[in-house]
Amino acid sequence: MRPIDEQLSRPGGLAERLYMLRKGAGIPVGELAVRLGWQPSKVTKLQRGQQRPTVADIEKWANACGQPGAASELLDLLSEADAVHWRWPIANMPQPRKTWGARNGRLSVTAACR
Question: Distance from CA of residue 5 to its chain's centroid?
Fold first, then answer.
């Protein structure tokens, strides 16, 4: 699982908040999809954390659920997920390793080749 997926679908995360917003408004998935002009599968993927929403998606969702004020909290959760997503590749890059040079018999540092 990618780090952004983990952040979106964690308990109390963006996906859960989108789901609770929709359920709190009493709107079925199909009806919300029609209101937003989306496929029902997009609504389902967003509220399960299987797809990253855009800023516009979050604003439309909040407005369609009658809670435009909730958009700022949801956007904060999206920013947190994005921050983890962009830090993860840097933290998990292959580190240089020490190898014994066959030509000169010296210890040298090389990048990991895969």
Answer: 5
This prediction has a pTM of: 0.68
CA distance 60 to 56: 6
For residues 110 and 61, what is the distance between their CA atoms, to the nearest angstrom? 49
Give the model confidence (pLDDT) of 40-61 as tens digits: 999 999 999 888 899 999 999 9
- Contact residues for 112 (Cβ-Cβ < 8 A; gap 6+): 94, 95, 96, 97
Domain 3-110: homologous superfamily in CATH: lambda repressor-like DNA-binding domains (1.10.260.40)
For 59-85, b/e burial (b = at least 16 CB within 10 A) is bbbbebbebeebbeebbebbeebeeeb
Rounded to the nearest 5 degrees, what angle is found at the Cα of 89, between the Cα atoms of 78 and 107?
Answer: 165
Residue with tokens 């604003």: 59
